[in-house]
Amino acid sequence: MSDLSLADRIDALLPQTQCTKCGYDGCRPYAQAIADGEAPINRCPPGGDAGIQALAGLLRTPPLPLDGTRGEHGPLLLAVIDEEHCIGCTLCIRACPVDAIVGANKRMHTVLDDWCTGCDLCVAPCPVDCIAMVPARREWTQADAEAARARHDDRQARLAAPPRHAAAAAAGIDASYDDTLGSGPIDAGRSDAGTATTGANTDVDTDADAHKRAAIASALERARARRARG
């Protein structure tokens, strides 16, 4: 008998795009909701009919048609940033669930094509509408899903951990130098240091950070509301 829980086995069948179109904050929470009998198996547009069939087989339940209020199944899309219009606000970096966007504050951002899941969560927060979703011209594979799950799990663990410099200060360690970024002393008065970063390097909390997090949460809620309205 497998040591995996039912939620683990359900999660293994989900595409791991972490798009939240199912109404849950990622694939794993949706898998848990299905396992707990709190959600139907037909709320994952990226998985489409094939995903529903796989879940139905696992759970020994009749398949259902895809819930159209959650979106439509279609080819894999890729986020592309219009670099001429990007203002370097970092909102898309913070919205990306798999750290697929690289950039720096007030510097151009770009998408790592091989990491992008096509979730489109970066589109709504962009204040200058410079992100478009375009055909990826390839299929989403099981290897892609496993890699995306790993990056999402790493990101969730990082966000749940205390900020590095706060932890260092609590331990009495001088954190005035950021050895991860390879920069000199951290200048708390500057917001345009320009060091390239993905979502992995956003652990120094400021009032601006709090404002951006609130903006992202609001934008994502608006995006979900638009999806719900169809």
UniProtKB/TrEMBL annotation:
Domain 4Fe-4S as annotated: residue spans: 2-61
One Gene Ontology MF term: electron transfer activity
Protein keywords: 4Fe-4S, Cell inner membrane, Cell membrane, Electron transport, Iron, Iron-sulfur, Membrane, Metal-binding, Repeat, Translocase, Transport
Region (Disordered): 184-209
Pfam family, one: FeS
Record keyword Iron present: yes
Domain of life of the organism encoding this protein: Bacteria
InterPro entries: 4Fe-4S_dom, 4Fe4S_Fe-S-bd, 4Fe4S_Fe_S_CS, Elect_transpt_cplx_RnfB/RsxB, RnfB_subfamily
Domain 4Fe-4S ferredoxin-type: 77-106, 107-136
Segments of skewed composition (Low complexity): 192-203
Alphabetized PANTHER family for the sequence: ION-TRANSLOCATING OXIDOREDUCTASE COMPLEX SUBUNIT B, OXIDOREDUCTASE
NCBIfam families, sorted: PRK06991.1, rnfB
Protein name: Ferredoxin
Species of origin: Bordetella genomosp. 10
